[in-house]
């Protein structure tokens, strides 16, 4: 009898603990949020995008009922770009067909909800590959071009450069063909437009040849990185992709780096290496290690040592472009109630890199932030997108922080991030807009001096403010109604 | 004592099954684009289970403990295989295997429950059996959730496989005891479990 009572009490205690542990708003299945799990709100409804006619009808219905519309893909943006309180969320993930492939012209047309993985799966057999993409291939095309993503490729610029045209369903229900020659004004607005100009229905993307790369990893002190990049990477046209990583281990905090280059290989035929990697290896040990990285200083040192050793030992490994463009991500999935892993990204002019890293390190340590990961990518100057983050050639520092979701924790994070952004802006840098809305309105306006034009055009194309999201509400300032 | 071992081994089975079951359903749902396809994946389980029961029936009295071991080992194999399945066809095949194992386990469990108890005195033993297997199942579901949050659903499948292996061991030990014990004592043993 005693044994049974103990077992029952244990079971009930575990249930009660789990109930309270998962009772915060970020875990509420009836509220809408994004990957950040910040600011959950109630939305009117979520509608799966299926047919063009259905979407046109949906906008008509929303206009008639004075409802706002937000557009969502995989909802990996973290600043409320994909939802709005009491609005309709159009979930485009089911609007995902591959419409046509032109192997000779190296082009593909897809519906906006197709993922980059869908494209890779479709074009790999033709020896073709994606030009520009963020590291992960699970995002939707519509989502990525709406944030004008960038990635490891150092030769093709931001994503906007690889878009040839798209069709945009406007607030008034009209569908416009948009390219650099047709309705050209909309092209640099909707790309990097955060879903504020209309629903991107389908997109024609320019592709590249799939190639075979030899990946090599080199370690170096942070102070040597800029010279290394300019002298060895930038000048070598055979290096097609590049990514670097800064140590967050406490004893080597932001002072050590390793750089991974993907160099064109001419020794072996591509066909022997172009089978797509479907399974992400070692997810469970990786997830456990990353949990140590979140929780302990020794975990940060351990993961840095293991990563450096693993990648250095793998140097010389041959990998196709399509496989290099499907980075592991499952090991970083994190659902812990009450805290979240949030990204921040800072774009810093090449020559200011070292000085910014020092300034950021001082702030992170003084504020005791839990910085999990910093990767560095190179971004070419982009004069096309209205909200361009790269006014010149920049390094992008992608920082992953583990942050508490409590209001006190969030306030502290906001103040800390604002200090880091001040340090970036002081050096002629910017920050990336798809992430949590920590930056102040003034910082936004400084980092994106074209903001006035952007919001004026938004009002011109969508005077009723049909397309709405939390990001827009936060940063439109006095510019728009 | 036999009843104690039966409860112990079958609690481990419900722990293994309970840990995977709700998450396994989500896993299956992700494989199909429609609920009908998902329904089919689940239905084949019952087909093999029903079919095999007819073949097992006449053999049950002689081989129930062996069947429990085979069932656990079969489930262990299925749990190890699931993370590696890359096609819907294989899911159906594993579902058929699991249905077969399910028939072996359910039928043997009932048969042994009857064997190890006396008519008119079954209530307490069956109550005990139900209590422990249910507690094991309830514990398993919560633990399963934490394990997936911390690790992956694949790890959950492997842990479930380990538990099925452990249950096979427990039944094997139970069978050894039965083999060494005269039949009359077995019956006495069944009464002794009340304590």
Tell me the domain tally of chain A.
Answer: 2
| Level-1 CATH class name of chain B | Mainly Alpha
CATH architecture of chain B: Up-down Bundle
Helical residue percent band of chain B: over 70%
Helix content of chain A: 25-40%
Q: Quaternary state, please?
A: heterodimer
CATH class of the largest domain in chain A equals Alpha Beta
> What's the CATH superfamily of chain B, by name?
MFS general substrate transporter like domains
Average pLDDT figure of chain A:
94
- The outline of chain A comes out as globular
Give the total of beta strands of chain A.
17
Terminal-residue CA separation of chain A: 69 Å
Overall 3D form of chain B: globular
Q: Average pLDDT across residues of chain B?
A: 85
N- to C-terminal distance of chain B: 10 Å
Overview of this protein structure:
The complex is a heterodimer of chains A (481) and B (195). Chain A has 14 helices and 17 strands. Chain A is α+β, with helices and mostly antiparallel strands. Chain A folds into 2 domains: 93-209, Uridine Diphospho-n-acetylenolpyruvylglucosamine Reductase, domain 3 (2-Layer Sandwich); 212-437, Alpha-Beta Plaits, CATH 3.30.70. In chain A, the strands form 3 sheets. An 8-stranded antiparallel β-sheet of chain A has the order 13-10-12-11-15-16-14-17. In chain A, strands 4, 5, 6, 7, 8 and 9 form a 6-stranded antiparallel β-sheet that branches. A 3-stranded parallel β-sheet of chain A has the order 1-3-2, with no helix packed on it. In chain A, helix 7 packs across helix 8 (297-313) and helix 10 (353-366) packs antiparallel against helix 11 (407-426). The longest helix of chain A has 20 residues, at 2-21. The mean pLDDT of chain A is 94. By secondary structure, chain B is an all-alpha fold. Chain B has a single domain (2-192), classed as Growth Hormone, Chain: A, CATH 1.20.1250.20. Helices cover 86% and strands 0% of the residues of chain B. Chain B has helices at 2-31, 35-56, 60-81, 88-115, 123-150, 153-180, 183-192. In chain B, helix 1 crosses helix 5 (123-150). Chain B is globular. The model of chain B is unreliable at 183-195 (pLDDT under 50). Chain A binds chain B through residues 4, 7-8, 10-11, 14-15, 18, 278, 283-284, 287-288, 291, 330, 335-336, and chain B through 86, 131-132, 135, 138-139, 142, 145, 149-152, 154-155.
């Amino acid at each position: 009898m005693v044994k049974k009572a103990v077992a029952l009490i244990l079971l009930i205690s575990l249930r009660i603990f789990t109930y309270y542990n998962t009772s915060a708003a970020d875990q509420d299945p009836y509220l809408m949020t994004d990957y950040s799990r910040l600011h959950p709100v109630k939305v009117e409804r979520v509608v799966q995008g299926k047919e063009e006619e259905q979407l046109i009808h949906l906008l008509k219905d929303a206009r008639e009922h004075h409802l706002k519309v937000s557009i969502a893909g995989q909802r990996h943006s973290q600043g409320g770009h994909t939802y709005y309180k009491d609005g309709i969320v159009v979930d485009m993930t089911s609007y995902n067909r591959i419409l046509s492939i032109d192997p000779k012209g190296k082009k593909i047309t897809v519906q906006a909800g197709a993922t980059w993985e869908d494209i890779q799966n479709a074009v790999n057999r033709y020896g073709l590959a994606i030009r520009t993409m963020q590291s992960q291939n699970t995002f939707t095309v519509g989502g990525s071009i709406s944030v004008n993503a960038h990635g490891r490729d150092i030769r093709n610029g931001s994503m906007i450069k690889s878009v040839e045209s798209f069709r945009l369903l406007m607030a008034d229900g009209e569908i416009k063909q948009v390219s650099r020659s047709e309705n050209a004004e909309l092209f640099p607005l909707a790309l990097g437009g955060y879903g504020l100009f209309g629903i991107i229905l389908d997109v024609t993307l320019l592709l590249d040849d799939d190639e075979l790369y030899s990946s090599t990893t080199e370690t170096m002190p942070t102070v040597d990185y800029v010279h290394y990049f300019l002298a060895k990477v930038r000048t070598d046209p055979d290096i097609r992709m590049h990514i670097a990583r800064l140590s967050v281990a406490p004893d080597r905090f932001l002072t050590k780096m390793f750089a991974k280059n993907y160099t064109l290989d001419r020794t072996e035929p591509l066909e022997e290496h172009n089978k797509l990697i479907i399974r992400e290896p070692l997810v469970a040990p990786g997830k456990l290690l990353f949990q140590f990285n979140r929780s302990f200083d020794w975990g940060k040192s351990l993961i840095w040592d293991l990563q450096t050793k693993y990648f250095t030992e793998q140097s010389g490994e041959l990998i196709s472009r399509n496989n290099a463009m499907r980075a592991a991500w499952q090991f970083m999935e994190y659902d812990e109630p009450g805290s979240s892993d949030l990204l921040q990204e800072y774009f810093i002019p090449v020559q200011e890199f070292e000085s910014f890293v020092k300034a950021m390190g001082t702030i992170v340590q003084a504020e005791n932030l839990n910085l999990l990961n910093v990767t560095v990518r190179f971004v070419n100057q982009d004069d096309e997108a209205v909200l361009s983050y790269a006014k010149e050639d920049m390094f992008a520092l992608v920082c992953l922080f583990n942050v508490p979701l409590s209001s006190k924790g969030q306030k502290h994070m906001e103040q800390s991030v604002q200090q880091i952004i001040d340090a970036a802006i002081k050096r002629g840098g910017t920050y990336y807009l798809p992430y949590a809305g920590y930056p102040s309105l003034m910082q936004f306006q400084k980092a994106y001096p074209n903001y006035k034009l952007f919001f004026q055009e938004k009002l011109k194309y969508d005077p009723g403010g049909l397309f709405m999201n939390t990001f827009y509400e936060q940063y439109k300032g006095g510019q728009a109604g | 004592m036999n009843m104690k071992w039966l409860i112990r081994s079958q609690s481990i089975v419900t722990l293994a099954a309970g840990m995977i079951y709700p998450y396994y359903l989500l896993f299956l749902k992700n494989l199909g684009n429609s609920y009908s396809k998902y329904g089919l994946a689940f239905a084949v389980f019952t087909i093999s289970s029903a079919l095999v029961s007819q073949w097992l029936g006449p053999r049950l009295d002689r081989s129930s403990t062996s069947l429990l071991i085979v069932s656990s080992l079969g489930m262990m194999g299925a749990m190890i295989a699931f993370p590696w399945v890359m096609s819907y066809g294989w899911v159906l095949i594993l579902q058929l295997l699991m249905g077969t194992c399910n028939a072996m386990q359910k039928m043997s469990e009932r048969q042994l429950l009857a064997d190890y108890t006396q008519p008119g005195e079954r209530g307490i033993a069956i109550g005990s059996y139900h209590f422990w297997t249910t507690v094991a199942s309830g514990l398993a579901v919560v633990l399963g959730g934490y394990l997936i949050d911390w690790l992956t659903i694949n790890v959950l499948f492997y842990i479930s496989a380990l538990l099925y292996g452990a249950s096979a061991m427990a039944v094997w030990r139970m069978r050894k005891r039965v083999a060494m014990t005269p039949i009359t004592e077995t019956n006495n043993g069944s009464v002794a479990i009340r304590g």
